[in-house]
Structure prediction request, 230 residues.
Amino acid sequence: VECLQEDNDFSSSLSTDELQELCADIIQRALEPCKKVVADAKLTFDQIDVIEVVGSATRSPLITGAIKEHFGKEPQRTLNSEESVSKGCALMGAMMSPNFKVREFAVADCTPYAISLNWSASPGAEKMEVEGGEAPATGKGNVVFTEHNVMPSTKMLTFMRAATFDISAAYADSANLAPGTSASIGNSVITVPPSANGEPTKIKVKVRLDMNGVLSVDSAQAVEEVERSE
Prediction:
């Protein structure tokens, strides 16, 4: 660095071996997502044909060397690191737009974190159903959207309630979140209309995880069954 301060020049050198020693713990941390995705996909190393690397970190031979050592395969660079993400976004945008026609391809995304729902009990509450499966009347951390749940996804919850109740959403395992991230997602209040006979009303609540991973309560309906003689 010329003229760093008061016309004094500065120079220093660092060998690759010294850099690797300083970054050893960071390099091992970089391999953890690779290990997790292989384990979650239930793959073995011999089922992996090609490893493609993109991103600024992969420019370092320390990262690509660690990947090669871990997987036993030479990382490939057939994609342009500067363009691969932007090209994918452009193609996805063209598929969604009515003004363009491109070759059909599919992108299946999934949520990286399991989402649980809690619901408060109310007088006269009975068991409820989540897509046909029973759950307790008072929900404490019921995982409704599992880890790697494909998006978009919709779940129908069926409650028997006689009074207004709350549904709150949160990430099921806060330990998987980045430090300082709140596990809470949101809270919804479901108002229950009074029934004619005073009995609990069947409430159907539609919960949706959209293509962007945003959770919302789409609708809540009161279902009244009336028996009539023909």
